[in-house]
Amino acid sequence: MKSVPRRAEGNGAGRRRREEWFSNRETGLDAVGLAAIKHTPHGNLQPMKYHIARGEEQLGTFSDLDVSAGLRNGRFQPTDLCWAEGMKDWQTLETHMKDVAEETGTAQPPVIPAIAALEAEVRKDRASRLEQASLGQRLAAALVDLASILVPMMIMFTVLIDERFEAEIRTIQNDPQAVMDALQRQIEKIQSTGNSTLMMLGWFMDVLVITNIILLTVRGQTLGKLLLGIQIVRFSDDSRAGFLKAVLLRSLLFVLIGFLPHIGPFLLIADVLLIFRADRRCLHDFIADTRVVTRVKKGSL
User: Fold this and answer.
1) What average pLDDT score do residues 296-301 get?
2) How does residue 48 score in pLDDT terms, banded at 50, 70 and 90?
3) Residue 13 and residue 19: Cα distance in Å, rounded?
4) What average pLDDT does this structure show over 205-221?
5) Between 20 and 30 A from 171 (CA), which of 43, 202, 215, 269?
6) CA angle 121, 127, 132 (to 5 degrees)
7) Is there a contact between 291 and 279 (Cβ–Cβ < 8 Å)?
């Protein structure tokens, strides 16, 4: 094996060339793929072994497929030197790949800086995608939100319903208007005794609803999601969902859909079952184009 020649190219030029090379992405068989194949006289395809060096440092011997993959994932640089059996001298990987492209009649496409920069941004964006919330986090947050509604309602019913009121409701249960009138009389009766429990529970429910609307609009969170450290974001770019998606489409609209005759209950069941998808997106997430992720703490980005 030939000794590795000394490198004369500066770090700045090599870095620029490497950035241009890695920005170039192709569909189909490119020069890297062609370099990963050695045609024998019998037409068979056999792997080649490349000796790779960086500067004066020997990196080792790698198969053609390893070199091809390494150039794509950043393990190897276009300015690294390579040598394989049959080559007269060491060459940079970039030069060798261009030579192979010319020999095989496959043109090496030029690098367009604007496209390269865009692809770099896309790769950076994909790498920085927020981690999706786990099934346990979603379930725990839903239970917290459910409890915040059910517990006050249970207390309210305990205060409202006594034996006399229960007996009255049984006799008029088929008349909705009569039931509402009886309920109103029962509330007025309790309030006349100076019992402020119902009024306080009413205030609590109002504050709860307003708080959740504000949290959903500003942070993409309900109280449950806030406690569990998860949030609702736009599916496309993980940005803030906002009032339209988090409140109107994801919450209010889906609640109304659940009241649809005949199909409403089935939609609610489907919504629950979709949580077991790999991306944890339920039916209301698809309606609002959202997903639930682990909230990033301030300063961690």
Assistant:
1) 52
2) confident
3) 10
4) 95
5) 202
6) 130
7) yes
**Residue 279 predicted with pLDDT over 90:** no
Q: How far apart are CA 48 and CA 50, in angstroms?
A: 6
Q: What pTM did the predictor assign?
A: 0.55
Q: If pLDDT is split at 50, 70 and 90, which confidence band does 35 have?
A: very low
Write a three-state SS string for the chain. Answer: CCCCCCCCCCHHHHHHHHHHHHHCCCCCCCHHHHHCCEECCCCCEECCEEEEEECCEEEEEEEHHHHHHHHHHCCCCCCCEEECCCCCCCEEHHHHHHHHHHHHCCCCCCCCHHHHHHHHHHHHHHHCCCCECCHHHHHHHHHHHHHHHHHHHHHHHHHHCCHHHHHHHHHCCCCHHHHHHHHHHHHHHHHHCCCCHHHHHHHHHHHHHHHHHHHHHHHCCCHHHHHHCEEEEECCCCCECHHHHHHHHHHHHHHHHHCCCCCHHHHHHHHHHHHHCCCCCCHHHHHHCEEEEECCCCCCC
Q: Report residue 118 as tokens.
A: 């865009």
Mean pLDDT of 103-127: 56
Tokens of 105: 């009649």
